[in-house]
């Protein structure tokens, strides 16, 4: 209690650093993406290219002027930054809908998908990983390792299609695509969950094997604790740091993998939004999606940092 | 990737052929039809887009003054009749009476004038559609149900253009009230009324019982945006979708649908044509003999049969057989690898000369076709390589900037089915699609046909253009692909539209 | 001794991993209230014995080939894991070697101790916490209530080991197994822990199995001794018998190898002593006795003047340092050619930092380091590089300091190449072979890899590598600490032989006062980064003047059960050397109480 003013200041410092980091990340990433995407395509041309429109240079100029893409890059980018500060992300080149509305509609879909997938993977990978570690070298361990190896080499696209064939077409149990009822979540999250589990289970196994060598695990056994208490109370909590770190990193990586899942399952999330935006060279939407993703990753890092402190007293803010 | 894709297809086929139980058709409310379109156009305003996906939906919401159905005939739409005046520089339309927009506004000459003033004014300047209607100088109201279109030059394709896209008639008051919000809440005079739109998910329509052409025979019409072909087909198989609109179903997936007892494939020749254009500025393809040799080395008949499963037809010039200006008499260069080798030898091309072919990476058919073309060209002693580009990059950067290899994919789907529309963009000097060409003779021919109102006269010039391009061997013409629909058998009276603008007021469902 | 059944009786126990027997035909008994020491070096099977009694060997994949473990009428060797769980922590408890890693870092000390109570005794949480408080007070941990809420990392090693003892005693076990409980601790802390354990055993009347390699600890703690060698019991008997009259050759060699503090009384110089080694199972005395008169006092080889090393520990938001660790505060000393200067002290005394600074592994904030009169500050980078050749460093852990993927020959030749000492490839190979023979290894081993060697052999390889660059000074940082006593004795002799032959100087950094007494010419005693007392080995060990030196010496266990130590109760922790900026420790001055004998003033 006596230390609370100090603690408050440290927390403030920490948050300040995180915010600076977030700003830096957003600027670097959006600058790179905005520039790169402008190098390889012109939204004005894309508008005409849908089918059957002859376009003259004059037509293109007219549309570019309307979109504002005739201005120099630095001015366009500055407009974007100004938009970020004033919370006005502009309008989509395709259809003119406000970008903030599109993001607000898409982000929750992606987040739900991502979190449920993560949850599915954690729920599957932790018991499996622990089981593999405990039965090291035995049949169960071999089976889990084979599953992991096969799972890692599954393309998510293929796995998704196989699940659709089984559950939607052969059994008629689940809808093949779309977001809506509880059932519609099962296949997308299962696909992502299985793929994540394939890597996570190995990680859990490795971390667990290392922890099981620790003397405190021996001490816990020497106290007479049951094996499940030894594993799930004493050992697991000590594996948590590498696992949380990895899950955090994975979350960022997964957002990329979700583009494919969203496409296959016609899931109206950020991935679909980004995919269409790239195809149409819809800069405002693309920049906004990238920004949101960057902020999400920063936020996940923040959560990871907080989680560190929760699971490991050695890392608590002092 | 290709192997995986084949695997999936095999799997789908196996399930379909095996006749494993299909999900029973869900109990829909009476008369609901669900259609999948490959893309969300994001705006429903007619002036904003050229997307086929837009037209597939919007045909059911809006009407134009004219109408062109699956039979490709131009018939009255919101205009009951019309006549050409002043040597084709003025067209007078008699409008249909007692037609109301979905919001209750009356359709009249005022609405027509508003629509075109908007398209040609500031509002239209922001979008791409205006470029198709620049021949219109002004729209004049003669009486509440008569309008004159005053043209700055005769435009023989105008009546066709009035049947689609930017020429859809919009309600003046409503558009003015809504402003930008009109994009997301479309109102027209069409057979179906807008109910709701969920970006990237779906758009829902309901029957317009007061439709001037007669009330639709289904009560609800829903469109879902599904870009992934296997997903669309899975939904079709699961009975959750009734119609899959092209371009969604790849040729390779046709057997899956054909194998399902409750589904069928309906395919019609469409507007889409594919060719490999030559780089006539640099490299060996500047030589006419080389271009001819390349054309002669490729057996298009085999490609159409073996790769495209007959879902396409060979072309000699860059247009569909349905296109105005198509010349059935025109003979292309024959498949003659020996002759090709001779021509190459005459041109002094060494064995193994390299050749780069730029294609769209997401075009599954072209990726396979290109492989076959490579082997044909290898057979005559060339050494081609394929360079796939992301479509946006290819069409908005590589082609307009003239950064292509020796050959590059041109794909065109002009909905007007008029060769002028294609040929002008493809061959006229300075056009985006024509980075290398600079032929005054060709420019003259292209320009000369534009003011001609005499259809026969114009058709002659267009045929001449087709022949000229073939003689110059500006491209390796490939094929005209069919528009492939996947349709559930519960849908009756389905007629496939070559241009994807599928009007669904006549269909019924079980 | 008595006719009643012993508390624990191990009969003909054989433990194996697959076919590899780690304990063979072992039998011994423990009476209630008795302490049995199981003594042996690495690989003797002593730890496996203790884990077998707890049946924790099951988790390691070991199994019993034969034998019984009778405890209170039950054969634990036949018990199920479920039955064992009610015994573990309840009737038999165990303390492990590493206090730093035996406590789970993510739970509070209180939780970890109460866990066993809640598990085995049907009591409420409040009652359990109350018991924990009593236990912590019993092991003399101050401020028990507050301590319960602390996490292991907030406690020093000694405090953790006491918490560990409290945990083991939580359910008042009938038998306590202590596996090397003090090995990793500083001597003063070791003395405290041993006292606590002795007192508690008396109080609770437990039987105790004390597993150790340290004959000093055995002499202090045990009633009865079991000597193990290569998985077998070679001798057992009452503790005085074993020390006074060892029967088995192995026991005799073991005892002869143990350096005993005070055994050099009256000697002015260190002395190389002959060693008893086992040859074909028979003890044999090898080597000569020689007085190590090697020091040449003309000019110091190394001269350290006012060395000051500080580490920034914590910074505030603006990057300004708020807390510093004063690792070395104004330390001065000289090392003469052929001399061994020992730096002794406990954790945090700064002894290793001094070594690392001289080896240029670290920078000093101020002070002058001179080699043969020339200061580091005045040297060119080429000269500084040459210093790396002349001053060599040997670490505590020989395995970690050798590249596991390189042959030992390659590792030894590396400094020769680095400093370009010999150009010719053949000559290099010859030199490597010579060096290996010099440290007592056959030259043929040059092509082998580190994992093929034992700990003692690896340390010999490290010495050969250090010798490869013809050094003048070797800094040996706890170089003997990880070795078994018999090996340690051999390496001590090797060091002394090399000094006699090559005129080497050693800066010998160690916490083991008995070894220091035997091999050093002069000794500097460090405490919190400052020298408390410095002088010849006779001055330090026989005319001990500073209270800290006295305390240190009194804490060392004497390997003689007959020795009756004056009971000095050592209390308190080693203070934390991290201080707030501006609150730096006072620099102590020194008095020269007799020629060459310096003692810190005041404090």
From TrEMBL, chain B:
<dbReference type="Pfam" id="PF00496">
    <property type="entry name" value="SBP_bac_5"/>
</dbReference>
<dbReference type="InterPro" id="IPR000914">
    <property type="entry name" value="SBP_5_dom"/>
</dbReference>
<protein>
    <submittedName>
        <fullName>ABC transporter substrate-binding protein</fullName>
    </submittedName>
</protein>
<keyword id="KW-0813">Transport</keyword>
<feature type="signal peptide">
    <location>
        <begin position="1"/>
        <end position="29"/>
    </location>
</feature>
<dbReference type="InterPro" id="IPR039424">
    <property type="entry name" value="SBP_5"/>
</dbReference>
<comment type="similarity">
    <text>Belongs to the bacterial solute-binding protein 5 family.</text>
</comment>
<feature type="domain" description="Solute-binding protein family 5">
    <location>
        <begin position="73"/>
        <end position="432"/>
    </location>
</feature>
<keyword id="KW-0732">Signal</keyword>
<dbReference type="InterPro" id="IPR030678">
    <property type="entry name" value="Peptide/Ni-bd"/>
</dbReference>
From TrEMBL, chain C:
<dbReference type="Pfam" id="PF08352">
    <property type="entry name" value="oligo_HPY"/>
</dbReference>
<keyword id="KW-0677">Repeat</keyword>
<comment type="similarity">
    <text>Belongs to the ABC transporter superfamily. Glutathione importer (TC 3.A.1.5.11) family.</text>
</comment>
<comment type="subunit">
    <text>The complex is composed of two ATP-binding proteins (GsiA), two transmembrane proteins (GsiC and GsiD) and a solute-binding protein (GsiB).</text>
</comment>
<keyword id="KW-1278">Translocase</keyword>
<dbReference type="InterPro" id="IPR050319">
    <property type="entry name" value="ABC_transp_ATP-bind"/>
</dbReference>
<keyword id="KW-0472">Membrane</keyword>
<protein>
    <recommendedName>
        <fullName>Glutathione import ATP-binding protein GsiA</fullName>
        <ecNumber>7.4.2.10</ecNumber>
    </recommendedName>
</protein>
<dbReference type="InterPro" id="IPR003439">
    <property type="entry name" value="ABC_transporter-like_ATP-bd"/>
</dbReference>
<comment type="function">
    <text>Part of the ABC transporter complex GsiABCD involved in glutathione import. Responsible for energy coupling to the transport system.</text>
</comment>
<dbReference type="InterPro" id="IPR013563">
    <property type="entry name" value="Oligopep_ABC_C"/>
</dbReference>
<dbReference type="InterPro" id="IPR017871">
    <property type="entry name" value="ABC_transporter-like_CS"/>
</dbReference>
<dbReference type="Pfam" id="PF00005">
    <property type="entry name" value="ABC_tran"/>
</dbReference>
<feature type="domain" description="ABC transporter">
    <location>
        <begin position="8"/>
        <end position="255"/>
    </location>
</feature>
<feature type="domain" description="ABC transporter">
    <location>
        <begin position="313"/>
        <end position="553"/>
    </location>
</feature>
<keyword id="KW-0067">ATP-binding</keyword>
<keyword id="KW-0813">Transport</keyword>
<keyword id="KW-0997">Cell inner membrane</keyword>
<dbReference type="InterPro" id="IPR003593">
    <property type="entry name" value="AAA+_ATPase"/>
</dbReference>
<keyword id="KW-0547">Nucleotide-binding</keyword>
<keyword id="KW-0378">Hydrolase</keyword>
<dbReference type="GO" id="GO:0005524">
    <property type="term" value="F:ATP binding"/>
</dbReference>
